[in-house]
Amino acid sequence: FPLFDDSGVSLEELGHHAGYYKIEHSHAARLFYFFFESRNRKSDPVVIWLTGGPGCSSELAMFYENGPFKITKNLSLVWNEYGWDKVSNLLYVDQPVGTGFSYSSDRQDIRHDENGVSNDLYDLLQTFFDEHPDLVENDFFITGESYAGHYIPALASRIHQGNKAKEGTHINLKGFAIGNGLTDPAIQYKTYPDYALDMGIITKSQHRRINLLVPPCELAIGACGTDGTLSCMTSYYVCNAIFTSIMLHAGDMNHYDIRKKCEGSLCYDFSNMEKFLNQQSVREALGVGDIEFVSCSPTVYKAMLVDWMRNSEVGIPALLEDGIKMLVYAGEYDLICNWLGNSRWVHAMQWSGKEEFVASPKVPFLVDGSEAGLLKRHGPLSFLKVHDAGHMVPMDQPKAALEMLKRWTRGTLYEKSSNPQILVADM
Amino acid sequence: SFAGIFDDPRLPPSDFPSAQAEKLIRELNLFPKSDTNIIHRNIQNSSLLAAGEKKIVERRLR
Questions:
Q1: What pLDDT, in 10s, does the model give residues A281-316?
Q2: Does B19 touch chain A (CB under 8 A)?
């Protein structure tokens, strides 16, 4: 790795790894991963990050959001001051199979649902902890964003089920965090018109008209449920008409960050990632040989369509009841997985602490004395609306995102201030 | 009451998923050479995979 190092950290001290895991329940598939030991303490929690798409590689987040390095214009790496490896042992996996450097020689290994995705990740984690037995006692957290709002609850449930059944190595799962995710499409799709109206993207009359699409969308999603097939594809078409209708009025607005415009068809420029990872010297450093880097895979995207409209919220209450923590956070300017839709499904979720959560106050989330967001919490459930951020919170608010991870994994996200009248979320 | 919405010619056609996937990727200025990593050939020069049939192979990065 061509690392431009001005931090004084010795390269010899870095515990940076790349690896391939041969998926046990596959024809011929291997998952590629990066693993970065914590820059501070080996006893820090182990955090896995899952990128969405579906079908986008984990390197997208690694280089542009919360990884140890950022890519410069001249394709060298500089330290990310707010990399999540400052407070955790950080694992990025290219998944589902076919994404990034993960590959198979058999097309049947392409995954179509959360069952396939979560089993592959569970098997990888089992083997990963066998390879790193010194980390198996550490707290373990699942994080990610966007379509990972589907993957994350599925993986959390899979690990919890494995732990309860005393299957393999016990994984010390303490919590999972979903950032600007798609988890409960029935609620999130019908919220699009309301968010768009609130943010001035559409007018009241346009809102009224687009809302006519909500009942058929609800009907279609209802038929899809948690395990439908054709009905889920139908609801994908029906419900996406809501989003598309809004975008027809939004013009060249960036749907990941409504404060920005997409220049031509370009909303972000992540092309340096592809250029960097296709360099011979980097490929040699990674040991990937002539395996191509697929930044985002259209085939994987399409394979997951049947999964898209399924409700991934259903397994969460059981996890909360068993004390597994959940943090749902959302940048306030993202349209595509907007905070309002996320807030609504979190508030509507049926669990034993629902009433208390709904009644709990919103408190400021303070970073360096400034309000970085608004936080609600009851028991194991927290919801954070992040200010001045779009779809990719760690990219837009890196310091706040790192603080959020640090406090949440250490159980100090929400603490009473010395003034009992004021509840603040601060250290 | 849905007339004029579903038949709006500006709404995407039946190849919507493919178009959406392409759009997602282009919006990020990404140009993957392959649709997916399905490989029907021997993998060459991979020091990670040269390690054989182990379930997991890992190397340290510098």
A1: 999 889 998 899 999 999 999 999 999 999 999 999
A2: no
